Amino acid sequence: MTRRDRWVVLGGAITLAVLATYAVLQLRVSTDISHFLPGADEARLAEISTQLAHSTLTRTVILSLEAPTPEESLSAARQLADALRPNPEIARLRVGPPDGFAEASYRLLFPHRYQLLFEHPEQEWPAMLTSEGIAAAASKLKLELLSPTGILLERIAGKDPLLAFPSLLERLEAVNSGALRVEDGQYLSQDGRHAILFVETKHSPFDGAVQAPFLEQVQAAFTRVNQDHGAALVLEQSSLSRYAVASEKIIRQDINRISGVSTLAIALLFLLLFRSARILVLSFVPLLFGIAAGIAASMAWFGEIHGLTLAFGSTLIGVCVDYPIHFLNHHSLIPSPDGPRGTLRRIRWALVLGAGTTLAGFVGLAGTTFPGMRELALFASAGIVAALAATYWLLPPLSAAVPPRVALHQACAEAAGRLLRLGAAHRRQLALLPLAALVLCAFGLPRVRWSDDLSGLNRIDEGLRREDERVRSEVSRMDSSRLIVAAAANDAQALAINDRIQEAMTEARSAGELGGFSSLHSLLFSEQLQARNTAARLANLANGERVIDGFAALGFRPEALADFSRELAGPAPGPLTLTEVLQSPLGDLVRPFRADLGQRVGLVTLVRDVSDAEAIRRRLAPIEGAYYFDQEEFLARTYGRYRRRTLEVVSLGILVMFGTVFLKYRRWRPTLAAGLPALVASATTLAILGLAGVVTNVLHVVSLLLVLSAGEDYAVFLIESASEPRFLNASAVSIALCCFATVLGFGLLGLSAMPALRAIGMTTGIGVLISLVLAPTALLLLPKVEPAP
Amino acid sequence: MLVCGTAVGQSPPAASPGTARDLLAAFKGLVGLEARFHEEKRLALLAAPLISDGRIYFLAPDHLTRQVTSPSPGRTTIDGTTVSFEDERGRHTMSLSDNPVARLLVLSFEEILAGDATALSRAYEVTLRAGPDGSWSLLLKPIVEPLSQLVAQIEVNGRGRTIDRMLLREVGGDQTLTTFSSVNTARHFSAEERGQIFPTSRP
What we know:
The complex is a heterodimer of chains A (about 800) and B (about 200). In chain A, about 65% of the residues lie in helices and about 10% in strands. Chain A has about 800 residues and is α+β, with helices and mostly antiparallel strands. In chain A, strand 4 (about 180-185) and strand 5 form a beta hairpin. The longest helix of chain A has about 35 residues, at about 240-275. Chain A starts with a helix and ends in a 15-residue tail after the last helix. By secondary structure, chain B is α+β, with helices and mostly antiparallel strands. In chain B, a hairpin with a 3-residue loop joins strand 3 and strand 4. In chain B, helix 2 (about 100-115) runs antiparallel to helix 3 (about 115-125). The interface of A and B includes residues 143 and 152 of A.
């Protein structure tokens, strides 16, 4: 090794150490699905979806604690709450309505009750204050006073004979309790068996690094409480973070398992052919560079890395290992008299061309508006460049000047070469291969079924899902994935939109388009509607004389209604604002209805039993800033766009690939020879998936990029060495080795429990095998290969 | 609001109970009850008392129905901690668990009939005044807020297991007197009657 070589190796080792240390220390894996949504500039819905993914609604973990008796459930819930409260990850923890809730409701709402009374104040205030209306109100008050709970009204009846405040409380009750009861100040399910705790976390549910230990701490706290109760408690949970953490765990486990087994298989193959531990170690150097650079680049640019990107990164094993395989294989079989550098110089154009065309495909992904796609593009591009660079600069100085000759290796090369030349000599028979592939395409491609359903990408644990549904059904009757959002620049504008949404949804409910809904509107109107109520009240009830006379006629003492009269004579209070409500003890009740949408504010209306989503959309269409949001439907639509965009990128990648190859050869025949087998292999892969009944999604399409790249690499190597039989032998065994290494890696990905990884594995596994089979057909477009010496 | 008066099918007069717990223990065996009631509410709000009449039904341990026949028909049903009101305007259900004051008030009568001394003593100071002829007066003085801010005292009078009248005095001076008659403390309800008189209001 020369002095220069030593410096190169030292520099490479330092670079790898720095990259690897940075990657390991900074690694933060996310499963946030918003990564795979289009960017905020593409659609407002995407913005809303992204922000909702981090809102109070999604950050809330619901804990349901079951014990043999309701009393024990409540006591255990108190204990669990006490144990969890000091946890720094908890932003808020609620076991029941805030202390003094009723008194706080009275203090906050009673002065504003007239402003919050009617949806259509111009009609409803005059109607209530006709002689008949006043008489009806007086009769109603009498009936209420007669009821067993009448004593509660006596306190306010003198000030509020029209019962404006009780009607407001009825609306509040609907928002407050939902499907829960309150027992001794704590939430209890209607069946009395489950005490409920609401735990709002500080971090996003998709932040696996924080959420995984937090969920473990919750479980540990429960275990301690359960011990105190003789192991008679059952804890069930509902939270997005559990799905996210479970997905991350599966992804990590699969990657560890797949990387381990594929690494072992590749190692055995290398040892068998090269009989050299040195070559085995060297073959992994570019791979390590590739992965470390991919992670480091993603962390540096995006601050975190998505689980799917990391999973896709494991596929780099297949791609990056191709470069050292080509070099080490050529150097072992036909070492250059100039040493390893000479061998590398001989194949450098094939390597650069292969990597360049692969990069072209990935760079296309960076042009999309999906952050996840861009992350994927960066990861793969950085990995490929780093692996190529490591192959180019580090492997020659680290390789033996004269590698050992292995008989088996030589025999394989000769056999592979013979097979190749046999095919080249019998062009008609060789042409049957692409012909068969095209027949498969004709039958298979029309059978390809696309699915953009999110569940096609992520495996949802059935046990978790059922538990989640059980807990949610105890807490709320509203759908968890459908909602309506009033989005505006500030709270006041959002409340105005919310008023209109309320009106539209009231009509929709009457028309049977949905079963029910829950909105902040039950508690708070916009400033405009409050002002309209005040104006209508002043116009119809400047003082209380008519009301007092009407009530007196039905037996009420006028002097007992003096407070009512006095209040009407005073100035009308200003509008009640959302900020005031949020800062009051009612804040916890209101907070889940409000979401920060970046520069905007969103007010959420929860819905249930939607039977006609289109009709609801039509009702909302004239309301600017109102959006009906069906998370599943939206994500399916988004993934559909994502898939179509990826197909466009793949098509563009094919053009770029042909262009890049043409720049090198300046002739059409070798250009077509390099690209067509890969193109046919990709189409055939898709056709086979269609014939096998596999429902294909966006990740199958992404994986086709790899198939294209690998297929094109194989063809380029054959073209580059076609003129020299010895080189052709080496290239033949080279691409076979590359293919086996890739198939080993990807074939195992196809066994993953995660459908996303399975999709990648199946597509690339099948694809590279077909690419290997079709690679010799590149020779059909080249001049006849000379017979073997 | 409360039960009883001239009893129907009642047991012969028993000796006066020694303590409130003795009295409530005697109620514990009550399986069902039916009585007529007459209620007068004297409120500062109203020039004349509010008067209502009707029937009351109790099915141990936690079903109570108050059927008003006058001045206008209506029915209040307590089923566990859920109370529902029905009248000419429709039906309205409310969870007592969301309203601790209403719960203490509404359930206190049911707790007397069920003989639940523990539940009563959580909200009231309970004292008994026994008469020489088997009559008794049970005094309930609220000890928890905000109930104590509303109610000054509840006085229940009776003889044996029969309640004759109940007087609720409010802090502000309003009061409600309920007298009971035709009390049947051995009322058994058929399945059909249970469905009609105690419709379930739990979700």
